[in-house]
Amino acid sequence: MLTSKEQKQLVESQLMIAESLKGIQENLKQLNDQNVLHSEKLTDLTITAQNDHKTIIDTLKMMTDKYWWLIISLVVTITAFSGYKFLSQGV
Known about the structure:
- It is a single chain.
- The chain is mostly helical.
- It has one domain (4-88).
- It is 92% helix and 0% strand.
- The protein contains 2 helices and no strands.
- The chain has helices at 4-66, 68-88.
- It is rod-shaped, with a radius of gyration of 36 Å.
- The relative contact order is 0.04.
């Protein structure tokens, strides 16, 4: 059987544990709230990045469809000047 002093210490210990558990529960709730906010921000950033990527790809497709002749002309011109420079060196 426990003495009254031991019973008092046991009750005090149980109260301290209960207070500690309450503090831990509050900390976990705050961490969970932060995690939810972080998850929402990450989801928003992912959606934004996907939209930006799609916009860039769509713009490149549109430019390729619209300016295909310019792209071919530039490639031919650069190739011609490279060949001219190579031939003019006397190699």
